[in-house]
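Let's practice the habit of predicting before peeking. Look at the sequence and jot down your guess about where helices and strands might fall. Then scroll down.
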Amino acid sequence: MFTRKTAVVLHRTLWLLFFVQLVVSFTVGLPYPYAVSWLPLIAAMAVGIGLARHTGKQVEAAARPPVEVDPPVIGRWTALNSPADRTPSHGTHQYGQTYAIDILAEAEAEDGERSRPSFAWLWPVARRSEDFPAFGAPLFAVADATVVHAEDAQRDHLSRNSLPAALYLLLFEGIARVLAGARRIVGNHLILDLGDGTYAVYAHLRRGSLTVRAGDRVTAGQELARCGNSGNSTEPHLHFHLMNGPDLDTARGVPFTWRGVGVPRNKETFEAIPGPARPAA
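Done guessing? Here is the structure:
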């Protein structure tokens, strides 16, 4: 049976084959006509379009009301790529992220100015993760749940929040991560089973920061990990979404709303209220 998982693997393999051919062609002649070398690319695009259409129809057919959960953070944060503005919020249904949201921590310096580094057109090309207030911020369980996947061995890289670095991410690093699979996109991540066919994803976690492992039971408000800058990330932030299964390659997105916050819009700054089991902010 030709399943979605099989299609995802085929899509990734076709892209990999095309890029391998491209690299090899710079050193030796390919043993077949030039036009043939484009077939994997054409096939990969066709499979990708088919996956996108099929997933979009599945999301529409399986539409659910928003699931209310606690916010995964405490303090002042700003939303980006919010499902309150559009869906799919990240431009794709892939990895179950139809209703995903990115949030960045905000902190104020003594003079009241924002201390989160702004996007740079040319310089500095990259910054240390420690320069961003989100890096190392605690992340909490949004509900009572069971941990189904937890990993935090990938490195936290330098920021990609300048024009040269963003182009590098888009044209080189991002493509390599897509070819490597979902775990290289989300970086260090955590997946919780909230029950009733709903799973929560926390992505781009800090290396070595997990306090739980697969199989653990957690309670709402329990600290789980720290915010990091691993995976396909421009700067330290939390990528959060709900989905209807534990497999990022096959799950479909589920809408959410945060208790006491709702769903913040793009560039909206909000204050996350501590849950009952969390320490005071």
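How did you do? The CA atoms of residues 206 and 228 lie 4 Å apart.
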